[in-house]
């Protein structure tokens, strides 16, 4: 079992102003060296110029970055599943802090402010599926904390379904024991004005496998940041993401994979589409192959499809390697509009331009949906994507 996360990595070192050219601080050069703390008071006020915040309109959610939050338990709905328990636990629960610790102020504010954690515990070697639904949390600023523990050799799919009103900052801890096989799917279908900042921390044990899927379709500002530590030899993770931004939406994903054990494997594949004025998506992918990560096999990619004028897609892949003894590592990123040849081919077969566009986008995003492994959820998401494919002419 992993030990609780420490909170003492070094802050940037103070030096004379001329040493770094402007601010008088040496920036953190390694992803794993970022400062961490579960106490919001340990973080400075957010200005929006920080690397972790620079893409977000921080002025629109200052209440989630500082001040009091409602951290009380909220109403949930849960499907029944054998060998899966769902309960509220106290802050003293020994699993809290095992998977990671906040690296930024909103996450730390949620950690400081929650009263009880929602604990989902998976037992049993038979595959099973459970859906946890949250709806209508309201627009008062709120904090939340969730623990998902997959006991050794267990198998399950856990779906976190989000909809309705929300103004939420939260942390989700995911703990996989030896040889566990867990799929976690988080679906964001919030109302148009919702704000959701979510940090997922995962620790993957020996020979365990985690599939983590982020689907963001609704909400005004949504950021889901999975941070995965491959902590045991032979650990494995697939990180999948699908997002569709309409006019005025900001959908962001900051992904981090830390290969901290030998013979580990990771694959990251995020795809997004954008349409409408001021639709903005951000994907940042950090992969660290540490000195203990011998035999690592890693690859990450991000693809964005631009459907109209006035959109913006930021895509930043990063790769750090601290050992030369690896199987392979790489990354890729691409952002572009429709392929005119594809549209021409479809139209030459008698398909209208509008329907041809729908087919291209559907095919582009369906690859991610089909890898989730839950037929019922996959069918529902395909319908949701279809509903998004309304031609807005940039409005």
UniProtKB/TrEMBL annotation:
Q: Which GO terms describe its biological process?
A: iron-sulfur cluster assembly
Q: Which residues form the SUF system FeS cluster assembly SufBD core domain?
A: 143-364
Similarity comment text for this entry: Belongs to the iron-sulfur cluster assembly SufBD family.
Q: What is the protein's name according to its record?
A: Fe-S cluster assembly protein SufD
Identify the species of origin. Answer: Cryobacterium psychrophilum
Q: Which gene encodes it?
A: sufD
């Amino acid at each position: 079992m992993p030990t609780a996360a420490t909170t003492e990595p070094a802050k940037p070192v103070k030096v004379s102003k001329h040493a770094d050219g402007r601010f008088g601080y040496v920036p953190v050069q390694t992803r794993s060296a970022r400062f961490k703390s579960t106490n919001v008071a340990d973080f400075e006020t957010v200005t929006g110029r920080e690397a972790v915040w620079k893409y977000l309109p921080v002025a629109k959610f200052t209440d989630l970055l500082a001040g009091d939050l409602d951290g009380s338990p909220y109403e949930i709905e849960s499907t029944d599943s054998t060998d899966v328990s769902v309960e509220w636990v106290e802050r003293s629960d020994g699993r809290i802090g095992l998977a990671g610790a906040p690296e930024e102020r909103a996450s730390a504010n949620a950690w400081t402010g929650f009263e009880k954690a929602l604990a989902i515990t998976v037992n049993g070697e038979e595959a099973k599926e459970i859906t946890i639904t949250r709806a209508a949390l309201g627009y008062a600023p709120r904090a939340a904390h969730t623990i998902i523990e997959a006991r050794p050799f267990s198998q399950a799919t856990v779906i976190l379904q989000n909809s309705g009103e929300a103004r939420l900052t939260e942390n989700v801890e995911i703990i996989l024991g030896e040889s566990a096989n867990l799929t976690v799917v988080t679906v964001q279908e919030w109302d148009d004005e919702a704000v959701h900042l979510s940090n997922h921390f995962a620790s993957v044990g020996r020979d365990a496998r985690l599939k983590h899927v982020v689907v963001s379709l609704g909400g005004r500002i949504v950021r889901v940041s999975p941070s995965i530590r491959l902590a045991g030899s032979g650990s494995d993770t697939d990180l999948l993401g699908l997002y569709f931004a309409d006019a005025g939406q900001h959908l962001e994903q900051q992904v981090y994979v830390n290969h901290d054990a030998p013979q580990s494997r990771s694959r990251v594949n995020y795809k997004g589409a954008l349409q409408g004025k001021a639709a903005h998506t951000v994907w940042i992918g950090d992969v660290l192959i540490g000195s203990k990560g011998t035999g690592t096999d890693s690859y990450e990619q991000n693809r964005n499809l631009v459907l109209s004028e006035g959109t913006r897609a930021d895509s930043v892949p990063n790769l750090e390697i601290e050992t030369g003894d690896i199987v392979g590592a790489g990354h890729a990123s691409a952002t572009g509009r429709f392929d005119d040849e594809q549209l021409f081919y479809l139209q030459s077969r008698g398909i209208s331009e509008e329907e041809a566009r729908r087919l291209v986008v559907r095919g582009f995003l369906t690859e991610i949906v089909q890898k989730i492994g839950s037929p019922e959820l996959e069918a529902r998401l395909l319908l949701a994507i279809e509903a998004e494919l309304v031609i807005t002419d940039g409005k």
